[in-house]
Write a structure and sequence with these properties.
22 helices, disordered N terminus, single chain, mainly alpha
Length: 493
């Protein structure tokens, strides 16, 4: 068994530690993650785990830390998550952990581009190193080669299976029917995959290794791993054999989901009695987008410029097929969300989800374009930034509040549509731009003094916001003209 705790500087004389400290820390943190997150709502627990992960990383790499930078290592990034856990605070927390690790363990990266590349390597490639290093614990070359080839296909395939099952009530039902009973409920597929993801996420922070060449005096990585040439290890991890097996397995998994969508979503075949169409449509919208993003990350890692798989005549068609299936999954997600919105109407988050799904689909197409045109990853980043900028520019010109309000009123049950009854509280929360739709909703529901009073508050807010020419905009001017053109009797009853 190869010891993972001996610093490189002491490799010649140090004896193997009787306890593999780093794997023990990683397992302890994975157990903490299981207790904090599995089957639980996430909040301040994310901050607790981030602090525990930082402490574990400091403990595992204490001899090689830059102690002068430890106080600057990411603690401010945890403050938003302490205030409120959401997508933005999660992004800051992840970035803070990565920047903190970079500041305290790597003094060689001075350029911003190198630092950004190191963080991308930490978050995108680092988790896969856990499987390589886990295999490296055993001095069995044949077993190591075989497991390395199959670890990524099996591990990522398991994650994709979990996401596809969470997105498809039919698959969940079939798997539940195969459940052997309560004895295996604790160690179910979900928990096993959770531990695999947790360990692979934790390991890059515990067993730190940066892609650049390290100075001779740096004791950052153990000699047993360094002596085997990390770059060759990475090539083996994403070698042709591994990528080929992964793509074959992934295409088969995705084809199964695509066939089910073609039958039940696009073909409108009747679902089993215990599964509602709304449930089938709604549950798959968001997990399938996560699946597509993971697929895009794998394609970028596997088909990197100059890599062994980029020119393969067998792998390239499999990549194109898999990306095409992912585009179909994104289109299915858009259709699922559209079907759900037809019943439960629009919200800000559902509009954002539509836009995000379109961006994911465009990103997948751009990945294929990069491979076909033999472009660099810099070209891909620029193309995606241009797409994102153009999307944000267009969105800045769109009156989403009015669109949401108009859609909800026009498709509501009061107006004879397929949707649910109008949620007046949400409609009023959209602000003054929703006033024309609110007036139509009041007319459909009948005169209600409470609603008219709340509507009057929005009118006063609009008048206050446009009282001075300095605060006016073309959108607010158009709304004011529309309100002034309305007969007063239409809203006062």
């Amino acid at each position: 068994m190869t010891d993972l705790t001996t610093p490189a500087s002491d490799a010649g004389s140090a004896q193997a530690s009787p306890l593999p400290v780093k794997p023990a820390i990683a397992v302890a943190l994975a157990a903490l993650a299981d207790w904090l997150f599995y089957g639980q709502q996430t909040g301040i627990s994310a901050v607790i785990f981030a602090l525990a992960l930082a402490l574990g990383s400091l403990t595992a790499n204490f001899a090689t830390l830059n102690r002068s930078r430890m106080l600057l290592a990411g603690l401010p990034g945890l403050v938003p998550a302490i205030e409120e856990f959401n997508a933005a605070s999660l992004a800051f927390m992840i970035l803070a952990l990565g920047v903190g690790l970079l500041l305290t363990t790597n003094l060689q990266r001075y350029k911003l581009s190198e630092q950004a590349g190191a963080l991308c390597d930490l978050f995108l490639v680092g988790p896969f190193r856990f499987f390589r290093d886990a295999i490296g614990l055993f001095n069995l070359p044949t077993l190591k080669t075989g497991l390395t080839i199959w670890f990524i296909p099996v591990a990522l395939g398991g994650i994709f299976v979990l996401l596809l099952v969470s997105a498809n009530p039919l698959l969940e039902k079939w798997i539940r029917l195969m459940n052997p009973g309560d004895a295996a409920s604790y160690l179910g597929l979900g928990r096993i995959l959770f531990w695999a993801v947790a360990l692979s996420t934790i390991w890059p922070f515990i067993h730190v290794w940066w892609r650049s060449r390290m100075a001779a005096s740096s004791a950052l990585v153990e000699a047993a791993v360094l002596d085997q040439a990390p770059r060759s290890g990475r090539m083996e991890l994403f070698g042709v054999a591994t990528i080929l097996r992964s793509l074959v397995l992934f295409n088969l998994l995705f084809a199964f989901q695509t066939i089910l969508d073609a039958i039940y979503l696009w073909g409108n075949v009747a679902l089993p009695a215990d599964i509602s169409y709304a449930s089938y449509a709604h549950r798959g919208a968001y997990p399938l987008i996560v699946t597509a993003l993971l697929a895009a990350g794998f394609v970028l890692a596997a088909m990197r410029p100059g890599g062994p798989a980029e020119q393969s005549k067998v792998i390239r068609p499999l990549v194109y097929l898999w990306v095409a299936q992912n585009v179909l999954l994104v289109l299915s997600s858009i259709l699922r969300l559209d079907l759900y919105v037809q019943i439960y109407l629009l919200t800000w988050w559902r509009v954002a989800a539509f836009i995000w799904m379109v961006l994911v689909a465009v990103g997948l197409v751009l990945i294929v374009a990069r491979i076909v045109l033999n472009r660099s990853n810099d070209w891909l980043i620029r193309a995606n930034l241009i797409t994102l900028t153009a999307t944000l520019y267009i969105c800045s010109l769109v009156n989403f509040a009015a669109i949401i309000a108009d859609y909800n009123v026009n498709h509501s049950r009061e107006a004879g549509g397929r949707g649910v009854w109008i949620d007046m509280n949400y409609l009023l929360s959209l602000g003054p731009q929703a006033l024309p739709a609110i007036d139509r909703a009041i007319a459909l529901r009948g005169f209600d003094p409470a609603l008219v009073s709340r509507r009057s508050c929005l009118v006063e807010q609009q008048a206050k916001d446009t009282a001075s020419w300095r605060s006016r905009g073309f959108r607010s001017w158009r709304l004011q003209r529309a309100l002034e053109a309305q007969p007063k009797s239409s809203t006062t009853g």
